[in-house]
Amino acid sequence: MINLLDLSPLKFVNYCQELGEMPFRAQQLQKWIHKFGVSDFNKMTDISISLRKKLKNSGYIKAPHIISDQISFDGTRKWIFNVKKNIIETVFIPEKNRNTLCISTQVGCAINCIFCSTGKQGFIRNLTIGEIIGQLWVIEFKLRKEKNIKIDFIKNRQITNIVMMGMGEPLLNYKSTIGALKLILSDHAYGLSRRHVILSTTGIIPMIDKLSKECPVELAISLHASNDNLRNQLIPISKKYPLKELILACHRYITYSPRHMITFEYCMLHGINDEDIHALELISLMKKNKILMSCKINLIPFNYFPNSNLICSKSSRIKIFAKILMNSGLFVTIRKIRGNDINAACGQLSGKILNHI
Predict the structure, then answer these.
(1) Potential cystine with 16: which of 25, 103, 240, 271 (Cβ 3.0-4.6 Å)?
(2) Are residues 31 and 78 in the same domain?
(3) Are residues 28 and 91 in the same domain?
């Protein structure tokens, strides 16, 4: 028996062929499951009775189970899911013109960035396609139900943007991440624009190059430092992927990026990476032949978590840092803190409700 949430668009076609069915049946199945949120084969009314019988005998549809639902004072919402006796967290960030879902791709994380709570939990395992896309599947249709929106009213989408910035390093779970991305982008499933999907990575260079060819979405690099010595302290895996090589990979990716630009995320840490010299080094890093890369620098105030021994840069220091960057011609934003009262802000996801239930 196979969980149909674990099927990428191509695997849907292969599955239908194994059942002796034509490829168009794969599109029908995707629509029923991912556009309409249907998990009962009997309700898939334009599918023949004989095929429904085959589906019941060979497959099922089962998503991760919600065990906690928290809402922040600012409207941010965090769900904790049980995935085969492990814990993952997913965050919903509503705004005036868009609703963003922050999705996890691993249970824990092996990168162990010093400013991120997820890494302190250690790495447990990769998520399957079904466990990744299941977060979107559950929440999209839960929100529709809460707002009394007809389940088959596909135009009134609740989730408009996806960021793969939750627990884990997406490019170290490449196969499942790509499978989920292709469902998110498929017109027969969620049909989101590539411009509305962002994958965040610490910089796994071979996989960045592979992503550009197989499924180019918006790319965000967890940079957080302006030189190799500092970055090696903050992000241990960066020893394997030096900044010079990472920046070259980013230049290669820009050609494929939907907006032809890269986002660089920079967590502001008091006394560590927030001095003027770091801003000037960052400017130099973004230049190639004296021309600035097409990019955005997203400055992220550090969000506290227990035993981190780190302090967020002062607001005044962040503004000075931003001004230095902007004066060079770089496009700079300062991320608004959302959901930190429920530990849903950037760097706070940890899956603390026991790793085993």
Answers:
(1) 25
(2) no
(3) no
What band does 356 get if pLDDT is binned at 50, 70 and 90?
very low
Give the range of the structural domain holding residue 45, as residue numbers without chain letter.
2-60
Is 292 annotated for ligand binding?
no
Of the candidates 41, 60, 79, which is a domain's last residue? 60
User: Strand 59-60 and strand 331-334: pairing?
Assistant: unpaired
131 is catalytic: no
- The strand pairing partners of 209, in sequence order, are none
pLDDT at 117: 81
User: Choosing from 21, 89, 218, 265, which is the catalytic residue?
Assistant: 89
Helices (H), the chain: 9-18, 24-30, 49-58, 117-120, 129-146, 174-185, 205-214, 228-234, 243-254, 276-285, 315-327
- Assess if residue 352 is contained within a domain: no
CB 171 within 8 A of CB 204: yes
Measured between alpha carbons, how far is 301 from 299 in angstroms, rounded to an integer? Answer: 7
Q: How many domains does the chain have?
A: 2
> Has 75 been labeled as part of a binding site?
no
